[in-house]
From TrEMBL:
Its main location: cytoplasm. Gene3D superfamilies: CRAL-TRIO lipid binding domain (3.40.525.10), GOLD domain (2.60.120.680). Interacts with RIGI (via tandem CARD domain); the interaction is direct. Interacts (via GOLD domain) with SLC18A3; the interaction is direct. Interacts with SLC5A7 (via GOLD domain); the interaction is direct. Residues 521-674 form the GOLD domain. The keyword Phosphoprotein applies. This is SEC14-like protein 1. CDD domains: SEC14. Residues 3-175 form the PRELI/MSF1 domain. May play a role in innate immunity by inhibiting the antiviral RIG-I signaling pathway. In this pathway, functions as a negative regulator of RIGI, the cytoplasmic sensor of viral nucleic acids. Prevents the interaction of RIGI with MAVS/IPS1, an important step in signal propagation. May also regulate the SLC18A3 and SLC5A7 cholinergic transporters.
Amino acid sequence: MVQKYQSPVRVYKHPFELIMAAYERRFPTCPLIPMFVASDTVNEYKSEDEAIHVIERRCKLDIDAPRLLKKIAGVDYVYFVQKNSLNRRERTLHIEAYNETFSNRVIINEHCCYTVHPDNEDWTCFEQSASLDIKSFFGFESTVEKIAMKQYTSNIKKGKEIIEYYLKQLEEEGITFVPRWTPPVACKLESSASHTRRPVSPAINIPDSATKEGLNSKEILNTSSSPAEPTAGTPDDKLDADYIKRYLGDLTPMQESCLIRLRKWLQETHKGKIPKDEHILRFLRARDFNIDKAREILCQSLTWRKQHQVDYILDTWNPPQVLQDYYAGGWHHHDKDGRPLYVLRLGQMDTKGLVRALGEEALLRYVLSINEEGLRRCEENTKVFGRPISSWTCLVDLEGLNMRHLWRPGVKALLRIIEVVEANYPETLGRLLILRAPRVFPVLWTLVSPFIDDNTRKKFLIYAGNDYQGPGGLLDYIDKEIIPDFLGGECMCEVPEGGLVPKSLYRTAEELENEDIKLWTETIYQSASVFKGAPHEVLIQIVDASSVITWDFDVCKGDIVFNIFHSKRAPQPPKKDSLGAHSITSPGGNNVQLIDKVWQLGRDYSMVESALICKEGESVQGSHVTRWPGFYILQWKFHNMPACATTNLPRVDDVLASLQVSSHKCKVMYYTEVIGSEDFRGSMTSLESSHSGFSQLSAATTSSSQSHSSSMISRWRFC
């Protein structure tokens, strides 16, 4: 397996030239890197105006590996080749390194880049990426991989320290300023003119024979090739190392790399609707920084949030009065670590009465609103306390817990809530303090503990009776001044006291079922199943030409092909495919086929847009300006892998996708509407619908509320 690393942007608040002076002091050897024994210059080139300086070194490393492994490998030292391409004119240094030793067994590539900060020309930015691919190593592949990763991460941590060490050394020698490169007087005018036109240059690959053949700088610039991994992209797309430490906490280099790589993947597939970094980090932590596993559950959660409009729950949903009066829970200051503190008096809460009066879905929605409020409070506390706070503490008082709380429908609702919260709010619970646990508690714990993640269970602290008042109790986690009065503290707690829900508020099973279905289906998005040989199709009737059909869909499972067709005549009324039938509690999953099998493409209907292949996990927005009135059909079709693909090695993503797709079935979630051309603003490829937000979790979300407010009601039939 190929191991990859991508660093955040490291910022030095010093000019580029001074950083270069410090960097050069690392050679020929560096005492701060014990494994770096020596280096020899094997090739060097300087342009006539000294703007370009390319130097190639052979570096000797003493790897910290078991003596037995070195003996088996037959080497005491490992050699690397490093090529540094310095462009003083553009103020960039590109570094490329690869292993010379065991190059037929192990492939190591590293790319580093020093550039001027885009917003402050007196600061310098540094980035690096690397890859490790161990083909074979005498049966010790796993051991070599661990040693290599350990050595590399150790050197990454020292990187900034080394530059700062040599900066301090320069300062002690009285060197605090290094002048910028200026062109020679003879060619100053020509160089200045060309400088205004020349873009930032990439790493320059100098041919080995460059110095022998006497190529001048102009010829080299024209013949040089681009680096393997250019550092393209705007500064806003990248994470700063200082930002990570301030807002996300202390991460290891590999954890930083996982965050950056997953974030980059989301940027490429979700097209601007990127969750905030702390939210991405929660999913990575929940899967021990396994990118593939974290990506899978994150995509599922983002789809779930979008379908049920969870981002808007705090602004659009008002809890019923019954919940406000009888749900014995609420926010109460913060713990000693600055985490928001939520107090739940479960023993005083009538769970049976709440379920009978409101139903399971209303309780679930209320718990979701609590979690959304928790996310907001974490952000606020991060700003207040000046350190990253990404989770909250929950204090659960079980005094009064009895067999009534073990009522089966109530436990079922609790398990459902735990399942949803675990799937969509991982690593948000920093600590759970369970106080005054009665004898019946082990029964409840036996029922719910299998549904709680192992990492979450480790955060539980359980106190029986009044044990919480002794050593290791509440005072270790909560300041004395804010301990609630009902626990013997002096702070008045405004959490409702709960109590029995009046039976007059109970509702019949039929009323609760209808209410649950209403809450479940309160979404503008539709879900559909796509089968091999059975596409899903949506009909849109257009009366006025030049209308704009817009769409927004997520590929929840499998790979699909998206098409748009036009027909002058209406297709037959849709018939639901039996394969796509689902129960009423799962309103998505429909499958409708509108195009009759006897219809011929080009005669009965025509394709108006090129087919678009969409991979699992992708979020797609787009639009089509209609040229003719009539009937337009949006089609999502199962994507068959091309036959020739079997002869090539598959990508890791393709293998994972093939394992997840069963019975040739795909799932999509979509929303579409028709907008008048006079109301349309821009292209939907860059315009996000005001309904598809991710407003709570997105760091960069654009809205189109103005466009939505004036949009027309579309005339389409859903399956």
